[in-house]
Amino acid sequence: MLNVSLFQLERFLPLPYKNALEPRLKHAHKKLQTGSGAGGEFTGWVHLPQAYDREEFARIQAAAQTISRSSQALVVIGIGGSYLGARGVIECLCSPNYNLKKKPTPNIYFVGNGLSADALQEVLDLVADVDFSVNVISKSGTTTEPAVAFRFFRRALEEKYGKEGARQRIYATTDRQKGALKSLAGSEGWQTFVVPDDVGGRYSVLTAVGLLPIAVAGVDIQAMMDGAREMMERCGEASYDCPAWEYAALRYQLYRSGRSVELLACYDPAFRFMAEWWKQLFGESEGKEGKGLFPASVEFTADLHSMGQYIQEGRRLMFETVVRLGPSACSLLVPGEEDDGDGLNFLTSTSLDAIRDRAMEGTLLAHTEGDVPNLIIDAGEKSPRSLGALIYFFEYACGLSGYLLDVNPFDQPGVEAYKKNMFALLGKPGYEDRKAELERKLGR
Ligand code: PA5
Q: Has domain 46-219 been given CATH number 3.40.50.1100?
C-alpha cells in the first residue's frame, strides 16, 4: 500500500504542523470533492475512477484490439497533458525500450510534442513501410504542434490506404462537442473518444487520452482504473490517513520553510517519463502568481554521477521526493569470478535489488547529511494497479497543494504568452499589431 514519510522529520520540520494545517487541508479537500473551489469546473477527475463511462471504456479496449490486429505501429499525436501520461505509463510498465522488444503489440511513436522537423521526419520514415494507425489527441483541437504533425500523418495514411482506408485508421480523442479536431472528425467520419469537459489536460491520463495508447501497448487498463479507484476511496477520507494529505502537507511545509525546488527521484530508469508527467502536473498547477515549488526530476543512480554533486553541496534550495518502486520483476545475482580482478567478489550472489537498496539508503543518508530533506513515497510493485493508484495519488495531492497555495490548480494562463507571440510572428490573421511590436523588439 502506498505510503509517504519524511526521513528525519523532526530535524527538517521541528515545529508541529499537522493540527495547524488540518483545517486548511479539510477546506481544500471539500473544494476538490464538491468542485466548489477555483477551477472547480475541472474536478471531474476526482470521481472519475468510479464514474467513468463504461461504454466508452469498452470501445477503447475494442479499438486497441483493432489497432493491434491491423497495425505494426501506432502514431500518438499530442502534447502536454495529451501526451506525457500515456508515455509515462507505457515506459514505466512496458519499458523505455518497448519499441525494440519482440511483442504481439504495435510499436508506439509519440509525435506532435514539439516542432522538430527531424523528429517528425524520422517517425514518418519509421512507419513508411509498415501498417500503422494514428491516435490524434487534443482537448482543444487547436494546439499547433499536434495539429501540424497530424497534417503530415493524415496525408501519409491517405497516400498509403486511400481516404476510406485512412478513415479506418484514424482515432481522434478530443472534446465532446467543440474544436477544430471534433469538427474534422465529424465530417471525415473518424472514430472519436472524449476528453470530458470537466477534466483538464494534465489530469486526463485516466481518460481515453491516456487509456487508448496504454491499452494498445497491452497494459491492463482495467487494473489501472481499479488501482486508481482504491486510491480515490482512500483520498475520500478527510484526514491524514489519506497519503495525499501527508504528501501535500509535507511539501507545503518544506516550501514554507524556504525550499523552492522539489526534485523527484526514482531508481528505475523506466520511471523517467512518469517524472515528466509529474513535472507538468505540479508545474502547471502550482506555478502561478509568483508562487509554487519548481518541479525537477533526476534518475538515480545515473544522475548521482552528474547532478549528485549539486544535490550534495550546491545551493541549498531543494528537497527530494524519492519514489520507491519494487521489487524488480527479475532477480539478477552478481556472478562470482575466480580471480576477483575487479575486487567485486564481496558482492557474489548479491541481487541487483539489494545493491540498489543499499545505494538508496546510502544516498538518503548522504543527501540528508547535506541538508536535503528526503520525502519518500513507497509506491509498491511496478504494476498497472499500483501505477493507477500512484497517478491518482499525485493528482489528488496536486489539487490539495494548489488550494493550500491559494491558486487555481486547474488553469494555465501562463501557457498562452508564447502561443500568442508565435502566432503573431507566424503572421496568423488577427495578430497584426502584436507582430509589428514583436518584430520591433527583435530588432527587425
Ligand atoms: O494541462 C493542459 O491543459 C495542457 O498541458 C494541455 O494538455 C496541452 O496544452 C495540450 O492541449 P490540447 O489537448 O488542447 O491540445
A: no
